[in-house]
Amino acid sequence: MATAPTSTSVEYEVVIGLEVHSQLLTTSKMFCRCPADYANAEPNTHICPVCSGYPGVLPVINEQAIDYIMMTALALNCEIPDFCKFDRKNYGYPDLPKGYQISQYDRPISRNGYILLDVNGEERRIGITRVHMEEDTGRLVHREGKNSYTLVDLNRAGVPLMEIVSEPDIRGAEEARLYMEKLRTILVYLGVSSGKMEEGALRCDANVSIRPRGQQEFGVKTEIKNMNSFRSVERAISYEIGRQIEVLSSGGVIHQETRGWDEDRGVTVSQRSKEYADDYRYFPEPDLPPLVISREWVERIRAQMPELPDAKSKRFVEQYGLSARDAGQLTAEKALADYYEAAVAAGTSADTAARAKAAANWTLGDLRRLLNAGSLDITESRVAPQGLAELLDLIESGKISGKQGKEVLEKAFASGDTPAAVVEREGIAQMSDSGELERIVDEVIADNPKAVEDYHAGKTASVQFLVGQVMKRTRGRARPDMVSPLLLGKLGAP
User: Fold this and answer.
1) Contact by Cβ (8 Å): 211, 8
2) Rounded distance, CA 483 to CA 47, Å?
């Protein structure tokens, strides 16, 4: 639990709850047939009378969106009641021109779930209050200048938006970041969200308060908005915790308000007084019938669910003999886990356990280093899983050494060629011709009499010098397991 001492010796406990909004990867919007994918579209080209808020129109529920929300709820261990309804939420901003947002209030699709986090080796259980649906708003585009003005783009209005509300169980900024990362991973595994915070597909509002340790009553909370990355979430919450402690320590009062995160300045700034539930004036949506959710419907959704990250990580440990740490890193991103398993399956090694471990080491080591250097995702790697498997086959067969494998991987990653093609083109293959190697060993012994003399004088370390000379003359192509025996055989006993 995150605490912070102050000059008055009061020890504070941090209390955080997160409201996460995720756009769903449906074909159409929540209540109409307009395309839900508005990326790169001209403003106000993916709209109709329903999502534009024209009077007299009737919304129709997107069944796929409901399926996705139920799937997410099951993945988050939520209860799904037999009945849910829709509500109107008063919304007085121009990016939703009908003046209200269709959402859910007191009878949501799901409730009472949880998510498990690994926080510094300790398992933390964060409660999920509910997972429910609502519709996204449009976008306001501000134009600054002498005659500043604001434009409204309604392409996003009505896109299915899932809200996941946590209990106030999070106890620090790092824990909040870990929660967001774990939640994003689950959503991407389910295939219900792209999880791209930088594009607004996944958004987070944080409710932050502090209270003296031991006090049961919650402190006054502030809500933080405008966080568009995991790093922003952690930084914004850290700043707000410090700000609240400073205010209370100086005798001030925390006011319930909405604050925005200023990424450039690294501070939260006041935006408006925080609304209460009564301010939204919820009431049942008269144009949509309540949903009766049968157990058959729930079980059909459950049967469609893919393997989730925790289960996959456990399987990687059991099936491939990986450490829990390696398995956790590989399964943190679905695309990375898929890449790894494809690489293991594509290999020709008879030793499955050794191949699985080698594939993990190369994927998490050299390949990830190359990806990070280019700010690339695993899906953008120019070395396919089959290419990595081919590289491991070349190393295992002795055609190239592990050191040469690193060089081959870099060249294949840069060019897009297969590792075998790189080895052929660059002449990187190890020298396995014993006759040629013996000739070079003889030359090295003849050209280094002092090292030979030192060896016979008992300085056995000089053998390593001679091995190095052989490797130098062969440009690293000689196999070390062949060089040492040849040298020792020719040098005789020390």
Assistant:
1) no
2) 73
One CATH from 3.40.50.720, 1.10.10.410, 3.90.650.10, 3.40.1410.10 for 434-491:
1.10.10.410
Q: Helix (H, G, I), strand (E, B), or coil: what is residue 24?
A: coil
Task: Find, among 258, 215, 228, 226, the residue nearest to 13 by Cα.
Answer: 215
The phi-psi region of residue 227 (left if phi > 0; otherwise alpha if psi is between -120 and 50; otherwise beta) is beta
User: Could you tell me the two tokens for 142?
Assistant: 């501000």
Angle at 357 between CA 353 and CA 359, to 5 degrees: 115
Q: Which two tokens stand for residue 404?
A: 């040469």
Would you tell me the crossing angle of helices 334-346 and 352-362 to the nearest 10 degrees?
140
Reported as a single tens digit per residue, the pLDDT across 396-451 is 888 888 888 999 999 999 999 999 999 988 877 666 656 777 788 888 888 888 88
Task: Summarize pLDDT for 136-190 with one digit per residue, the tens.
Answer: 999 999 898 888 999 999 999 999 999 999 999 999 999 999 999 999 999 999 9
Contact of 162 with 21, CB cutoff 8 Å: yes
- How many beta carbons lie within 10 A of that of residue 217, not counting itself? 6
Q: Cα(370)–Cα(409) distance, rounded to whole angstroms? A: 9
Beta partners for residue 429, in sequence order: none
347, 354 in Cβ contact below 8 A? no
